[in-house]
Amino acid sequence: MTRSNASTVSPLRPTGVDPISVLDSPDKIKGLVCRECHREYPAQPIYVCEHCFGPLEVQYRYGDIQTHISREKIAAGPHNLWRYIDLLPVSPRTLVNLQAGCSPMIAATHLGRKLGLKNLFLKNDAINPTHSFKDRVVSCAASKALEFGFTTLSCASTGNLANATAAAAAKAGLQCVIFIPDNLEPGKIIGTIIYGAHLIKVKGNYDDVNRLCSEIAGKYRWAFVNVNLRPYYAEGSKTLGYETVEQLGWSYPDHVVVPVASGSLLTKIYKGFTEFHKIGLMDKAPHTRFSAAQASGCNPVVHAITQNHDYITPVKPITIAKSLAIGNPADGFYAKEVVKQTGGAGAEASDTEIVAAIELLAETEGIFTETAGGVTIAALKKLCAEGQISKNDLTVAYITGVGYKTQEAVAHIGTRAYSCAANLKAFEELNIVK
Amino acid sequence: MAVSVRIPVPLRNLTGGQEMVSVDGKTIRELVDNLEQSYPGFQDRICDEKKQIRRFVNIYVNEEDIRFLKGVDTEIKEADDISIIPAIAGGSTAWLTGTVGR
Question: The pTM is what?
Answer without folding.
Answer: 0.90
